[in-house]
Amino acid sequence: MRTKAEYLKGYKDLVAIRRLEEKCAELYQLGQIGGFLHLYIGQEAVAVGISNALTEKDHVITAYRDHGIAYTQGMDPGVIFAELTGKIDGCSKGKGGSMHLADTSLNFWGGHAIVGAQMPLAAGIATGFQYLKNDNVIVCMMGDGATNIGYFHEALNLSKVWNLPVVWLVENNRYGMGTAVERASAVTDIQLKARGYKIPSEEVDGMSVNAVEKAVKKAVKHARETGPFFLEVMTYRFHGHSMGDPERYREAEEIKRFRKEGPIGILHAEILEKKYATEADLDKIHDEVDEMIAAAVEFAANSPEPDPSELWTDIYA
Amino acid sequence: MARITIREALSQALWEEMEANEKIFLMGEEIGVWGGTYAVTRGFYDHFGPDRVRDTPIAEGVIAGAAIGAAMVGARPVAEIMTVNFALLAMDMIVNHAAKLRYMFGGQFKVPVIIRTPGGGGRQLGATHSQTLDALFAHFPGLRVVTPATAYDSKGMMKAALRQDDPVMFMENALLYQKRDEVPDGDYVVSLEKSDIKREGTDVTIVTYSRMLHESLAAAKKLAKEGISCEIVDLRCLRPLDLEPAFESFKKTNRAVIVEEGYPQFGVGAEISARIYEECFDYLDAPVKRVAQLDVPLPYNRALEQSAIPNVDTIIKAVKEVMYV
Fold this sequence. Notes:
heterodimer; A: Rossmann fold; 6-stranded parallel β-sheet; two-stranded antiparallel ribbon; 8 strands; B: alpha/beta; Rossmann fold; 7-stranded mixed β-sheet; 5-stranded mixed β-sheet; 13 helices; 18% strand
């Protein structure tokens, strides 16, 4: 973000993801969203920074904590809520749910619920791009927990052997479900794992939209011109792993500390300091977001249930 | 017409389709410089080059996953998994992803990937290298599972697989690569959805596929000399499963033997016999008989191993049982 307009757009995106996720929690409590629900609250700057950095030749794939990146890639919140509530106007016709948002027209390849599975798929998407010589790049997001599974190593290795146009981007939110990084990973400085495959890596402040944006731009350029790049983005999730998380693994103090310096607060202060807006202007953005989310929820509520015949469609081409 | 081996048939199909469609590329362990451990891709690397014939690390998860991902964005990868036993390391990619991506994302993705892999026992390779796992893959909606037993079918089905948009598990059998039969000179395809009567007969219906087709044909030849006429249905594909010809045959013979090389429990024979009972109950003259591998991991010892795998003799015995002779 450089211009005033970009800063205000970035701020609005952060607030929109926050409100969208808060609304999800509400709808989940009401029983309107079923299954598992993983909120992105606290990590918003990562998705905003990534999408800010991407151009029409850049693509993204992620894990199941996918609402934020779906939104920043341009998915209509109404479509998101329709999918979450299992309606026909959802991006996946209500067949995918919270963990399976995707829209290929937005260069967004999902939304994958098996931890780490997006990595071999991303290696393949990058292989396809390389093979088809279309100059595209894929950014593969993953959590810190996913760096401990076999796919991580198979995918990173292949990406370097074939010099694939892929950016591996870890959102290190300090916990894989309820297990802290230092309890699960022999190497706690996760970006070092990439060095084992001779993939250049960087650590990034995930609470800053601009830090993420800058790092992703550089990484994507490297991926396009040279080969894989690896980013470890330091972030924090303010809510539980999913809605059924007893949170026995961390202290309330820790959450409070991160919340105080959350991505929205940081950008809020920066905008005021740069005098890009007044408190009142920013309040107005909050109001606009509230209206957008309300309209989106209404759109989803009015969307029909899938026809029973949908059970049998999309199995084969 | 030319008499060629199944190895040659597969090789020809891949070669001709790669010449015709630049989106097709091959990937897998030792398929390039080495020429393929079963030599199906011998000569491909020199002709098509390293970009289209990609040697991979020994890493089945990412072999399957990368092929699926490349298919998602418009390429047509053919991944070779050296043996079906190693496909177990890629099971999540095949079952949770190839089979489900299209459905789970409301039809947004197509995944035209082919995973070629040979299986089967009988070569003294021990329990982990001798399995016949066709039934396992046939369990999952979203996959196509094809199991050709002849050179004609192998070439035609490989070509058909390369011209459609679903993920295909192309199940080969290591002992069949040298098997020969006649293949037409020009271009042709064989449906991925149709079973085929490989021998006509009147007394007993044998339903089988892959290598057991040849054991069944040999058994039928012997039985004919004893005056027992067997009709043989070659399934050719396990998913989708075309049972109409088998039902039609059964309604004529009223007796059936299902022959497979895999395990009996929850196997191909279990499925087909259940379907015969459901669809053709009024036509039964004898209980449907299953012939399958004995319910044990295959041992290394040759005699022990051979005793556990169906053959001409065990098929003849089963046919005589349903004939009550």
